[in-house]
Automatic annotation (TrEMBL), chains A, B, C, D:
This is Aminotransferase class V-fold PLP-dependent enzyme. Gene3D superfamilies: Aspartate Aminotransferase, domain 1, Type I PLP-dependent aspartate aminotransferase-like (Major domain). Keywords: Aminotransferase, Pyridoxal phosphate, Transferase. Pfam families: Aminotran_5. Signal peptide: none annotated. Coiled coil: none annotated. It comes from Nisaea acidiphila. One of its GO terms (molecular function) is L-serine-pyruvate transaminase activity. Its cofactor is pyridoxal 5'-phosphate.
Amino acid sequence: MNQQNPVFIPGPTNVPESLRKAVDMPTMDHRSAAFSDILHPALQGVKQVLKTREAEMFLFPASGTGGWEAAITNTLSPGDKVLAARNGVFSHRWIDLCQRHGLEVEIVDTPWGTGIPAARFAEILAADGSHGIKAVLATHNETATGVCSSIAAVREALDASRHPALLLVDGVSSIGSIDFRMDEWGVDVAVTGSQKGFMLPSGLAIAAFSPRARAAVESAKLPRTFFDIRDMAESYAGNGYPYTPSVGLLNGLKCATEMLLAEGLDNVFARHRRIADGVRAAVGAWGLELCAKSPDLYSDTVSAICTPEGFDAGRIVSHAATVYDVAFGAGLGEVAGKVFRIGHLGSLSDVMALSGIATAEMCMADLGLDVRLGSGVAAAQDVYRAGADPQRMAAQ
Amino acid sequence: MNQQNPVFIPGPTNVPESLRKAVDMPTMDHRSAAFSDILHPALQGVKQVLKTREAEMFLFPASGTGGWEAAITNTLSPGDKVLAARNGVFSHRWIDLCQRHGLEVEIVDTPWGTGIPAARFAEILAADGSHGIKAVLATHNETATGVCSSIAAVREALDASRHPALLLVDGVSSIGSIDFRMDEWGVDVAVTGSQKGFMLPSGLAIAAFSPRARAAVESAKLPRTFFDIRDMAESYAGNGYPYTPSVGLLNGLKCATEMLLAEGLDNVFARHRRIADGVRAAVGAWGLELCAKSPDLYSDTVSAICTPEGFDAGRIVSHAATVYDVAFGAGLGEVAGKVFRIGHLGSLSDVMALSGIATAEMCMADLGLDVRLGSGVAAAQDVYRAGADPQRMAAQ
Amino acid sequence: MNQQNPVFIPGPTNVPESLRKAVDMPTMDHRSAAFSDILHPALQGVKQVLKTREAEMFLFPASGTGGWEAAITNTLSPGDKVLAARNGVFSHRWIDLCQRHGLEVEIVDTPWGTGIPAARFAEILAADGSHGIKAVLATHNETATGVCSSIAAVREALDASRHPALLLVDGVSSIGSIDFRMDEWGVDVAVTGSQKGFMLPSGLAIAAFSPRARAAVESAKLPRTFFDIRDMAESYAGNGYPYTPSVGLLNGLKCATEMLLAEGLDNVFARHRRIADGVRAAVGAWGLELCAKSPDLYSDTVSAICTPEGFDAGRIVSHAATVYDVAFGAGLGEVAGKVFRIGHLGSLSDVMALSGIATAEMCMADLGLDVRLGSGVAAAQDVYRAGADPQRMAAQ
Amino acid sequence: MNQQNPVFIPGPTNVPESLRKAVDMPTMDHRSAAFSDILHPALQGVKQVLKTREAEMFLFPASGTGGWEAAITNTLSPGDKVLAARNGVFSHRWIDLCQRHGLEVEIVDTPWGTGIPAARFAEILAADGSHGIKAVLATHNETATGVCSSIAAVREALDASRHPALLLVDGVSSIGSIDFRMDEWGVDVAVTGSQKGFMLPSGLAIAAFSPRARAAVESAKLPRTFFDIRDMAESYAGNGYPYTPSVGLLNGLKCATEMLLAEGLDNVFARHRRIADGVRAAVGAWGLELCAKSPDLYSDTVSAICTPEGFDAGRIVSHAATVYDVAFGAGLGEVAGKVFRIGHLGSLSDVMALSGIATAEMCMADLGLDVRLGSGVAAAQDVYRAGADPQRMAAQ
C-alpha cells in the first residue's frame, strides 16, 4: 500500500504532520504536573469545539463505541426505556449496544438515506405522558449513509411535550467538521472519537455530559468502572487520571483543538462544506445519486454514492485499493454493495479531494460504468475555484 | 521537563526508537487487507509471549483497567462470587471494580508487601464444596508494593480441591518482563496492557482467554459490548475489528513481540532480573529495605523502597521531578509517603538504570537522608559488571 | 502552507514515509562498527542503481552543486579545457562553476528545449587532434527545460574520434528515475543528489568515478580537500569517513536503494514514464506545448510547459502556492516567465499526479487562460488507466 | 546497538526530541516564501549565539571541514601565508587543508594538551613587519585533546603589533556550548557545524564573516563555487539559496537557536561548565589526569582522559561499545591509545552524564584498571548536587 496517497474513508482521517508529531511523544510521567498541562487544555479545547459552557468533558482511552457505552451506563439503569431511530449501521449498532445492556429500546425504523424522524419522535414523546422514556438517542451524522440529521429538531420534539428524557447524541462523524451546538440544542451527552474531526489516530472516546446528565449519574444503575465518569471527574480535579492515560493522544487532542480554533470553527465548517459540495457536484456529473434522499440531509463529512442497479459497489472499493492504492469506504449493512463512500472530513484539502474524485472516476470506468473521465473532476474544480479565498486571489 | 532522561516509573516504560516509529503510522484503512497483516501477527506474537497454545487473544483500545473489566464481564454474572487477595492498590482496585459490577468478592486481606496467600486460598476453596466461588482473581505482580506472587501456587490451591473456579490473572506489570506461563499455570484469563513489558505507549488492553474462559462467555450475564470478546472473535475471523482499532498501537504490538522474541524471552527475563538485582543491591547499600518482605517476592519490574520512619517518601519523587527531571513512582494507597518506587521494566539498559540509581542517591542526600553518594551505584555496578555478557567480554 | 498536499517541484521530491523514518535517526557514533553497516550497503546500492560494476561511489554531505565541484576538482587542473553544451540553467551553472575554477570551457550554445548536440560534439572532438579537451560535460536531464539528452550519443561522439576526454555527467534529475547505464555508456563521473530519484531530503552529493576518472585524481591539480575522493576512499576502506558524515541521510540512501531495487529499476523507470506520459497528455489536452522540442527529448522527471505568448507563467506558480497550497516549479533563466514546470519524479503515484494536474488546470482557469477544466485530468486518466497493472486488474 | 543510551562522543551530540521533529520535515518548496521564514530566523539566531552584530552568517550543506574550506577560499589566495598552531588532530587537519589549497602555513608546533601559544604568535606577528602573514588560524577548542584556548589572547597578539592578518577561528566544538564573542574578540571568520552545540544532526557548516573578511572575498583568488559566500549572500538577499538547501536542518537550526536563547546563553554555558566539572571531578577520583595540562585549558565540552602508561585507552572505547552499548570518543592522532574522551556537550543533563561516568568506571574495572566503582560517580554527584538550582530546591 502506497502510504503517500490520502485516504478517503470516513475516518480515521488523514492525520496532519503537526498532529502526528504531537501524538508521538516520549514517555512522560502521567502523575507529574506536566500531565495537567496537557489534560486541562485538551478538555477546554473540546468544550469550545462543542460550543458548550456548561457541559463537562470526559476522555476515555477507547473508541466511539466506548463513548456510546459511557453515555448510557452513566445515565441509565437496566430496564430503562430509550427512544431511537434506526436509519443506518451506526444507529443500528448503538441500539444493539443498548439492548445488550438491558435497556428497552423503542426503535423507529426509518428508511436508510433519510434522517431522524423528528415529527414521529414528537408524537411518541407526546404520547409518553408517564415519561417512561428516559433518553432519546440521536445519531447526528450517519456515517453509513452520509445523512446528517437535525439535532435541533429532535430537541424541539422533546420540548414540544416538555418531555424530560435525556438527549444523547452520537456526533462521532460530525463533531469538529460540522457545526455542533451542545448548549443551544440542549444535548445531554455528546459522543465522539479522536479519529474523525479531530484528525488524530483512533484511541480516544470523547464524551461530554450536560449538568442534567451529570446529575443522572448517581441514580444510573448500569454497571461501569472503566467508563465511570465519576472516577474521571474526581481524578481530573486532582490533575490526574483514574488509570493509565493515552498521554500522546491527549496531547494530540490539545493540539488538534488549538488547530481547529486557530483556523476558526466557521472556517473549518465552511471548508468541509466546500469540499463536500465539490464531491457532490462530481456525483451529479457522473449521473449518480447520493444515498441521502434530499439536500437538507447531505453530510459534509461523507458521501454515500449509489451505483447503478445490478452493479456491486464494493468492487469500486476493492479496485481502488488494489489497483490505485486508494481507500474509499464500502457500503455497510443494508446498503452494502449498493453504495460506496467518499470520506471528506478531517484534514483534507481541495487538492487532495480532487485526487480522490479522479480515482473514483478511473475505477468506475475500469469497471465498466458509464462515467466520463474528467467529468466529476471538472464539476468539483468549478466548486473549488469558486471556493478559493477571494482575498488571497486579490492578493496575487 | 527534559525529555531525554529515561523515566523510572513502573510503566508506561521508555519506548524504544523502533517502536516509536512502528506506532507512528500514517492513516490506513482498517477494513483493508493490510490490516490483517498487522492484527494477526500481533495476536500470534502475544500468544508466544504468554506461553500459551490454547488461549485466544483479544486486544482492546483501552487501559489495563479495561482488561480487568473484560476479564470479568465476559466470564461472570451479577451476584457471582469471586475470591481475591488485597495486598496492594492494584488488587484493591480490581476488587472494587468487581463490586461495582455486582459481584460478591470474598476478600482475603493480606499485609502489603506480602504475596497472594495461596495456603489460605486453598483452605477457602476446599471449604467451598458447593463451588459457589466462580473465579479466583490473582495479581501476579503488585505494582504498588513490588511484590511478585506465585501464580503456580494459586493454581495448586485450586487443583488441591479440584475446584472449578476460573483463574483470572492481572499480569499488567509482569507479562513481557517476567516469566508468565499461561498454559502451564492453568490461567483462564490473563490481562495486561501495551505500556509495560511491551514497551509501547498506553492504549491497548490485552486479554487472553483459555478455552474454559472462552466457553464461559455464553453464560456470563454481566452486560458488555465494548469489551465483548464475541464481537472481537467474530471480527478477527473476518480479518476485521468490531469498531475502529488503534492501528498504530497494534502495529507497535506486532513489532514489540517480534523484538521480545528476537531477544529471546529467557534473555529478556534475565535482563530484567539483572537490572532489578542491581537496583536491589543499591537499596541494600543505602541501608534501606524493600516493601516486599522476602526475596521470593521481589519483583523484577519494580522496587518499592521504604524510607525511614518519619520521612515523607513522596518528597523524593517530587524532588527528582523538579530538580533533576527524573520520574520515579510515588507510594500509593497504604504505603503512600512510606515508599518510593523505581520502575525497571520494559526497554531499559543497565546504563540507564545506573542513572536512575545515581539520581535517587542525590535526591536522598539533598533531602537529608543518610545515604552515601555513589554507594548504591557501586553496588549496582558490581551486579551489572558480572551481568555483562561474558561471551562479548571474551570477544574483546 | 498545507503540508499534506504533495509537491510538484522537480526536486526535492516527496519523501516516502519509510525514508522519513530511515533518515530520522538518533545519534550514533560514526566511528563505530555500526556505521559500516550503513555506509557500505549505501555505496553498494547506489552502484546498482547506476548500473556500474567498475565505478567507485563517493557520498559527500553537500548538494548536487558540490557533486559537480567534486567531479571537476578530482579530475582536472587549472587551465584545462572542457567541452560543454549550454541548453538550460543547470548546464549553464556547471559551466560557470568550471570557469570560476579556472577551466577553459568550450561552450556549445544550444537552444533551450533542445538536447546536447552530439553531432556538433563529434565535430569538435574530431578537430581536437591534440586532445586539448580533457573532459566533456553532459547534463543528462536539464531540469530547467525538461529535456533529457542521450548520453550514449555523447559517448559515440567521443568514440568516433577515439578521443580520450573524460565524460562527466550531471545525472541529478535523472538517476534513480530514468535509466542510467554508467558502464555501458562509458561515463567517467556521474553526479547526483539525494533529493531527486533517491526520494530523500537534500544533503548528499553522490559522485561515481570510473577507473579512468579515479586514475586522473593523482594528476588533477585543482585544489580540493572537502571534496577530495582520495580521503573518502581511504576512509571508506577503514569503514570510516574523513569528517563527520550525515549518518541519517546515508541510512536513508541505503534504504532508498533497497526500495528502488525491490520495486525493480525497470518498474521504477516505467512508472516515471507512465506518470510523465499522463502529464504530457494533459498538456496536449490543454492545447499547450512543452519546452522540449521533440518527443525523443521529453523528460520523464519534469515537464516544462510553455504558456501563451504574453502571459507570465510565473503567475501560475505563485497562484498555486498562495491559493491552493501546491508547489510547482517556476521557469528559470532564459525561460523564466515563459514556462512553468511540473516535477513528476521520485515517490509519486498516479493519484498524486492527478491532483497536480487538476490544480494546474484550476490555476490556469483562474488566471484567464483558455483551458477547459477536467480536460487535462481526463487525458491523464486515460494514460493512468491503461497503465494500471493489468495483472492486478486481472486479480480482481 | 541499544539506541536508548545517550552518546558520549564529542559530537554529533544527543539530539533533543524537539529538534528531531524540527529537522524531520515533509518536503517544501525552497523557492517559496515559506523558506524565507526558516532561513532568516536561523541566520539571525546564529548571530546571537555568536555574539556578533556585525558579521554575516553563511550556512552550507556540509560538515565543519567544509566550513574551514569556506573560511580560507573566501579570504585568501594561492601562496598566501597563514600562521597556525598545531596542538591536536583538528588543528592539524585544518593546516593540511590549507597546504592542499596552496597556502604557505607557518606552523607553530605545540605540545598536545596545551593551548594556542599566544605569546609565540605575538612574536611571530611582530616580526612580520611586511605583513606577509595574511591570516591567523585558531582552533578555539581542540576536540582531540579537550583543550580550550583563549581567542582573546590571540586577538591581543595581533593587536600588539597592529597586525592586519585576518583571525580565522574553528569554533566547531565550542560554539553554542562555550562562550564565544565574535565581535569582542575581533574574530574575522568563525566556523562551526550543526552537530555540536547546536544539538542537530551533522550536515550544516556554519561560517560567520566579519565585515573585513567579507571585504577580502573580492580579492581572494582561491577557486570556489560551492563554498562561495558571494552566491550565498546574493541568494539570501532574495530569500533564496544558491542551490538546493537542507531545509530540515535549517529549520532545526532555527529551533536550536531559539532553544539556546530561551535557556539563556549564560545558563547554557553554566550547564556545560557544571557537567564538565562533574566529569573532571570523576577523573580526579579515579586518580587519572586530563590530557589538558592546566585548568585554564580545560574544555567544557569534551574531556580527554589519560590512561596509565602501557594501557591501550582504545580498549575502553571498544569495550563500552560492545559490552555496554555506550559510545565514548577514542584518542586521535598523537594521543591515540593514550586517552579516551567523554563528550559532554550539546543536549546533556547531569543525569545522563552520570550514566556515562558510571559506564566508564565499569569499563575501566572490567579491563583491570585500578578504579574504585562508584568513586567517580560520587565525585560528580557532589558537583551536580551543588549545581542543582537552589531556587528550585527552595520551591520544594
